[in-house]
Design goal:
There is one protein chain. This protein has 432 residues and is α/β, with parallel strands linked by helices. It is built from 14 helices and 18 strands. It has a 7-stranded mixed β-sheet with strand order 8-7-9-6-10-11-12, with helices on both faces. A 6-stranded mixed β-sheet has the order 13-14-18-15-16-17, with helices on both faces. Helix 3 (79-86) links the parallel strand 4 and strand 5 (91-93).
């Protein structure tokens, strides 16, 4: 890989791709990129001077490109990938490239169903504040860094890992963190046990001189630890830290980050950890406060797209609202992500909105799937209604219209989902 000094990124705006592009650029690689749309993740990429073209075209690939790195969303029939085949340019997926990078570094991989991004950001900040200069690739823009990438001068590499399609197994971490574990990515993992098998392999891959940072009492994780060679570190033994971020889930994220920091740097002081966590500002699309609507309602946005994440996030929002305006209402716009996840976790989704007063459910974000007619936002809204929370299916335009007029001062609005529902939150604040 050291010989490949001219790399073209197909799908460079992806949250992981954009971070990896920055990392390789800072290490002396000549990087170019393309994508089919603009996203906030491109700001830091272009600030470094990396050329980016919007719109896929065979001519985007420089004539002297030596390697292609592509997002999973760019399939083999992508025009630029087809051109790379024609020109015999080697291709790596994002996760394959990430795996190559991790081989030459002391890698800390943060995995699990919930909290990966926030925990990765917290850990990177703790280690940065401790003076060990880590490099970090994070699944969202961390406000403290102004980027989803943190440049470091040491061989310490902190990376958010993804279990989908067994991508986690591409990495070679000395320290593996598993925040928690629930059935997800149901289009790839047919069952919880299938998902657990991937994590079991990752656990057993960790070296004997490494660490597994997790909650060994978690019923979905405990059975997977039996054959671990690495030392097990129980993050629940960490104290509760003062945070700017609300919610019990963030307190658990902080414990996990603190425990991992101690595994990386045994000499780190309690004060460095606590002071670093106390000032952590959070990440883009994780309980992010956006501003107020024209009628004075507070607007938040969150990436939550799994029933447990939705439930815990709304619980925290409701608790915050009770402190300020006990009679305030919680309005939620949810953008379901994938037909398979919505169908397979349908009952869990239908019970996840108990802390909301009004729920609007946008059309399901298809991403890599097609609609087979077995599930819809209207069906989910009907079941949410049956379970006691008022809900309707609505388009983005309808959601924006309703939320710009109905919620008032003292109310809270939250957009939720892994798609582009955040654009509604941006519009509500911009049009005030």
């Amino acid at each position: 890989m050291d010989e490949k000094k001219k790399i073209h990124f197909i799908g460079i705006a992806g949250v992981g791709m954009s971070a990896l592009a920055q990392m390789l650029f800072r290490e002396g690689v000549r990087v170019t990129g393309s994508d089919n749309a603009r996203f906030p993740t491109l700001n830091a990429v272009e600030k470094l001077g990396i050329p980016v073209v919007i719109g896929y075209n065979a001519e985007n690939i420089p004539q002297d490109a030596e390697l292609i790195v592509h997002t999973d969303a760019a399939h083999s029939d992508n025009v630029e990938r087809t051109e790379a085949v024609r020109r015999s340019i080697p291709q790596f997926s994002y996760f394959e490239m990430l795996g190559e990078v991790s081989k030459s570094k002391k890698t800390v991989a943060i995995a699990g169903t919930h909290g990966k991004t926030t925990t990765t950001g917290m850990l990177a900040k703790i280690l940065k504040d401790a003076g060990v200069s880590p490099t970090a690739v994070i699944g969202s823009i961390v406000k403290d860094f102004g980027s989803n990438y943190l440049h470091g001068d040491s061989d310490l590499f902190v990376v958010e890992a993804c279990e989908y399609k067994d991508h986690l197994l591409e990495l070679s971490p000395q320290i593996l963190m598993i925040t928690n574990l629930e059935w997800d990515h149901t289009d790839f993992f047919p069952s919880l046990s299938a998902l657990q098998e991937t994590f079991k392999k990752a656990i057993e891959k960790a070296p004997a001189d490494g660490f597994i940072v997790t909650n060994p009492s978690d019923k979905n994780i405990a059975p997977l630890l039996a054959n671990a060679k690495a030392k097990i570190v129980d993050y629940t033994k960490e104290p509760s830290y003062e945070l700017l971020l609300p919610g019990e889930f963030n307190r658990q994220n902080a414990r996990a980050a603190a425990a991992a920091a101690r595994a990386v740097l045994p000499t780190i002081s309690d004060s460095v950890i606590s002071e670093s966590l106390a000032s952590f500002q959070g990440t883009w699309r994780r309980f992010e406060y956006k501003g107020k609507t024209a009628n004075g309602a507070d607007v938040y946005d969150d990436y939550a797209h799994h029933p447990t994440a939705i439930k815990e996030t709304l619980k925290a929002l409701r608790a915050n609202l009770r402190k300020a305006t006990p009679c305030g209402k919680v309005y939620v716009a949810f953008h379901p992500h994938l037909y398979s996840r919505t169908r397979d976790l349908f009952e869990e989704f239908s019970n996840a909105f108990a802390d909301a007063d009004e729920v609007l459910i946008a059309p399901i974000y298809a991403a890599r799937e097609t609609d087979d007619g077995t599930v819809s936002s209207a069906m989910l809204a009907e079941r949410v209604n049956t379970n006691g929370t008022h809900a309707n299916a609505a388009t983005f335009a309808e959601i924006e219209k309703i939320f710009s007029t109905e919620p008032a001062t003292g109310d809270a609005v939250m957009t939720m989902g892994a798609g582009d529902i955040y654009k509604v939150a941006d519009a509500l604040v911009a049009h005030k």
